[in-house]
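Reviewers of the previous submission asked for a worked example of the structure-prediction workflow described in the proposal, so we include one complete record here. The input consisted solely of the amino acid sequence. No template or homolog information was supplied to the procedure at any stage.
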Amino acid sequence: MFTKEDIHAATSRIKSGSDFPQFIQELKEMGVIRNDVYVSNGLSAYFASEEEVLQISPEEYPDLVISVEPSVEKLKHALKIHQTGETGFISFCEHAADAGVEKWITDLKDMTCTYYDTAGNELVKEKISAT
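From that input alone, the workflow returned the following C-alpha cells.
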C-alpha cells in the first residue's frame, strides 16, 4: 500500500489545477482507487480499497466555511480558472467553499471527479483527461 510520503511526493509536484491529470495518474500507479477531499478542513482520504484508507490533513490550511447556497456557476468558474493554472490548491478550495462544495470525490477507476454540496447533492461531475 502507498504511504503518506508517497502521497506527499506526488502532491509536491502540483502547482495548479493544470497538473491534476498527472497527479491522478501518479495516484493510480500507486494503487489509489479513490480520493475524497473535504473542503472545510482539507482532509484527504486515499483509498486502496474500501477497507484500506490513508487519511492526510494538510499542515497549513485555513478554516473554511461552506456556503449554504450551492452555486454550480461559481463552481464551474472556479474550476475553469484553476484548470488553466490561475489558482493554487488553497485558492481553489476557498472558491469551492464559496460555491457550496463540501467535498469532492475522485474516482480513479472511472476517471471522474465529482463535487458535492453539504446535502450530498452532485453539483458537477467531470471526466479526468488522460495525461
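The chain is about 30% helix and 20% strand. We consider this example representative of the routine output the project will generate in years two and three.
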